[in-house]
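Input set for joint prediction.
Command: fold jointly, output tokens.
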Amino acid sequence: PEAADLRALSRHLYEAYLKNFPLTKVKARAILSGKTGDNVPFVIHDMKSLMEGEQFINCKQIPIQEQHSSALTAGLEEIIGAYQGPEYGFLGMGMNVSGQPPPDALELRFFHSCQSRSAEAVREVTEFAKSIPGFIDLDLNDQVTLLKYGVIEVLTIMMAPLMNKDGTLISYGQIFMTREFLKSLRKPFGQMMEPKFDFSVKFNILELDDSDMALFLAVIILSGDRPGLLNVKPIEQLQETVLHSLELQLKLNHPDCLQLFAKLLQKMTDLRQIVTDHVHLIQLLKKTEVDMCLHPLLQEIMKDLY
Amino acid sequence: LKDKHKILHQLLQNSTSPVDL
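tokens >
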């Protein structure tokens, strides 16, 4: 009976994962391996293709663009206001009246668009967290703390299926951006993604599927050692159950890889370091980039984080 | 904590839609 309960939990979390995360690993790997027929991603590998990629996305999203047309041509306040909705695209901010961006602002504009998608991803992760049995019964302050500390780790893990050694899918799999291009962006933007590529390439060797990922994400969210938690015990109890479910899932789903559970848990240490470095980089950007504005939700999460 | 994390709190309480975000 206990194993049956653990399998039911696994199925429940997998369903919640499918419901809340639009680009699954199955879909991402199909796109990356060219198995989606004519539906190939647009490749961004230099500044010219970055501009073309922007048009490519805008053409696909005319109704959304019309809704936000005032934000496209306006200043800082409107840029903050333009952080609305997942379909807004990967670029499309800080354009001047002629529709051409000032070239030196490209990195910042791209960074703003990434933030927009990240904020939407935080909403998706929050909905997923709420579906973990027992999560919404935790103290509300502790729910906030678990998300504040867990969400960037979850988003980092979720980048892995979108990446290979040469680049990453963005904009819901419609765009493939090369690693070399990301590396070529001016400092410190060019340094931001390299650690994620290194981590993802190693993480992908474990060959987790979407149902494994669902459990692993729940384990990360239910970390009882986050600073400031008021009531640790119920969180640890929930995590223990999900850990048992993950262990069983990996045994059944990857019978030939006996150490997979241990290997996966070891990744959590690397993950914390990557997130700490990422947050420090963002905090540095806030000080050095005068034109940078951080999305209010990401500000909330990153303030006093590490 | 809730005061410092209003949007997260709203997301948890279902009072923020994707459009509000």
